[in-house]
Amino acid sequence: MPPPADTVKVAIQWPGAFAKFIEIDQVIWSLGNHENFALQIADATKFYITEKNRNDIKNGSILHLTTSPYQMALQLHERIQSSSMDAKLEALKDLASASRDITFALDFINMDGISLLTQMVESGTDFGDLLSFTLTAFVELMDHGIVSWDTFSVAFIKKIAGYVNKAAMDTAVLQRSLAILESMVLNSQDLYHKVAQEITIGQLIPHLQGTDQDIQTYTIAVINALFLKAPEERRQEMAHILAQKQLRSIILSNVIRSPMPINDEMAHQLYVLQVLTFNLLEDRMMTKMDHQDQAQRDIIFELRRIAFDMDCESNNGSSTEKRKSMYTRDYKKLGFINHVNPAVDFTQIPPGMLALDNMLYFARHHQDAYIRIVLENSSREDKHECPFGRSSIELTKMLCEILKVGELPGENCHDFHPMFFTHDRSFEEFFCICIQLLNKTWKEMRATSEDFNKVMQVVREQIMRALTLKPNSLDQFKSRLQNLSYAEILKIRQSERMNQEDFQSRPILELKEKIQPEIMELIKQQRLNRLCEGTCFRKISSRRRQDKFWYCRLSPNHKVLHYGDLEESPQGEVPHDSLQDKLPVADIKAVITGKDCPHMKEKGALKQNKEVLELAFSILYESDEYLNFIAPDKHEYCVWTDGLNALLGKEMTSDYTKSDMDTLLSMEMKLRLLDLENIQIPEAPPPIPKEPSNYDFVYDCN
């Protein structure tokens, strides 16, 4: 009779005694004298067993009988106030470890433990390991979210900020101090203002110049927290600091291009910094163009002037109507939708005024490329012109979507791009590269205005594929795009279509199931043919390797294994006649592999050789007779074990068979679906039509 579902078997340990195995009823169990004793999980976490988590105990768990959380908290509260430095240090170590458990944390906090720790920090008498473990315990206790961050004094904040601002500070103390500052800023707007008065980004920069990645990670985390919580009037100021070449070059050289690989937490913090920087563009992205704003209208006029190099003074004498006509013609050449009043094009949000900012930046900083794109498209008369204005607006909107401008950073995202840390106007430069890509792709597709959305889809794919490769610089990004022409995108799409998930539809899966037995039979025949050709095996003793050989092959009718000793390694196939011994296939009972083989159980060095173990197999025949093999390589091992299993009517399970099945199945599927290119395969078969009301249409042969 199976044991009740609520009963588990566990081992209980306690000091000075052997572990005791008992059964626990998770519903009604209780621990006597629970005020003084408790059970802990006997692993690295050492979490206490409570009413809330006792149902998580599994069969075979090891539990440790120990002091109750309340008694432990009481003892540690007293011990950390010891006058002996050694005793105090040991107590703080125990406190830092125990504070990870929320049951203990509740009891310790209820004894005003947090206040005691902050007083110890504010006193300034502790340093080194004493201070490090004090701060560690504080961080662990605060991470449970039991105590509000708003309860801490300015003196405590100044002390923590002082550890960060100090030139030479113990690494562990610095790391905990940075973690505390980050939590303060993120959890309280009031604390943000107090922390911001004590510490600046300039004071944090030196910590990025070291080699400790944990310190660098926490430093960037504090910068991100200050950035995230800063009021609007201060964000632009902070953005200016972040855009400065000094900070960017330090992050680039000391963090991103450091020989040490970037861990997940560092990648997340760099991603957050990237998102927060781009979020400064949100105001412009969500600002519509004001038709009455002369400064904004002057930007559009500047785009026209740079493109067509018009002499403004020569137009002063022209009539108003003539100038309007000329402007309308030029704005059409620039690719605006509204030729008469292009300002209307920038009323869409997003991208709003950000699109106009990008266009002006491109026109001023990449003037040759800008003029070339505008002129070569405005002079075309074959309806294949790429509208620069409309393209720029839609491209800006697309880039904002790709980079998630205006969105809060994801909690578990690590998708940062090193190239955005290489330039102080990285978004604008990113746009300049992508608008030239768009123009190039438009020409490669020989697109017209009707194909606008198709072109944008291809450009998006080109950008996303290039970003996936994580280019280290904008030049490298540009180079990657050069290799992703429209023709290359078509090839990639075709390849993916033939290889990936669109083969998971029901009709495709049914076709696969139909083809697989045919391919498995083909693989089986290949294995048996290889066994018929035969293989030369070395004879290996348990004591030393000997250069003696034996040969084994399957008869053409697949009924007999012929084998025998050889004087030397053969140059080709060995005929059946020269092999003296025979083993009928009908007598084979099983094929044994690896350490279960009898010649692998013998004592000696051979037993310890892992490579030989992976190549060993044996044939069991009659009652306890074995024919033992050690294949020359992994390929022959797979061929023979597959072939022997096929002879016995068993499944072929080797890695070689799986690889062959994948390769052959993929090739066969591609061949059969070759004629279905660009044809949508339905998920379900078409419905069977209703029977006709009569069969008068059937031709009567008589």
Write down the Rg. Answer: 38 Å
Major sheet: arrangement of strands: 2-1-4-3
N-to-C CA distance: 76 Å
Annotation field: number of helices: 27
**Biggest beta sheet summary:** 4 strands, mixed
The stretches of 5 or more residues where confidence is low (pLDDT under 50) are 603-608
Mean pLDDT: 84
Category by helix and strand content: alpha+beta
Beta strands, count = 11
Give the CATH class of the largest domain: Mainly Alpha
Which architecture name of the largest domain does CATH use?
Alpha Horseshoe
Give the oligomeric state: single chain
Counting structural domains, the number is 4
CATH superfamily of the largest domain: Leucine-rich Repeat Variant
Residue fraction in strands: 5-15%
Helix content: 40-55%
Q: Give the CATH topology of the largest domain.
A: Leucine-rich Repeat Variant
Shape: flat
Domain ELMO: 295-467
InterPro entries: ARM-type_fold, ELMO_ARM, ELMO_dom, ELMO_domain-containing, PH-like_dom_sf, PH_domain
Protein name: Engulfment and cell motility 1
GO molecular function: SH3 domain binding
Secondary structure elements and pairings:
Layout: E1 7-13, E2 20-25, E3 37-41, E4 62-67, H1 69-79, H2 85-98, H3 102-110, H4 113-123, H5 128-142, H6 154-165, H7 171-187, H8 189-198, H9 201-208, H10 213-229, H11 232-243, H12 245-256, H13 264-278, H14 282-285, H15 294-308, H16 320-333, H17 353-365, H18 367-378, H19 388-402, H20 426-444, H21 452-468, H22 474-482, H23 486-499, H24 506-533, E5 535-540, E6 545-554, E7 560-566, E8 581-584, E9 588-593, H25 610-615, E10 616-621, E11 625-630, H26 634-647, H27 655-672
Parallel strand pairs: 1-4
Antiparallel strand pairs: 1-2, 3-4, 5-6, 6-7, 7-8, 9-10, 10-11
Helix pairs in contact: 1-3, 2-5, 4-5, 4-6, 5-7, 6-7, 7-8, 7-10, 9-10, 10-13, 15-17, 17-18, 17-19, 17-20, 19-20, 19-21, 20-21, 20-22, 24-26, 24-27
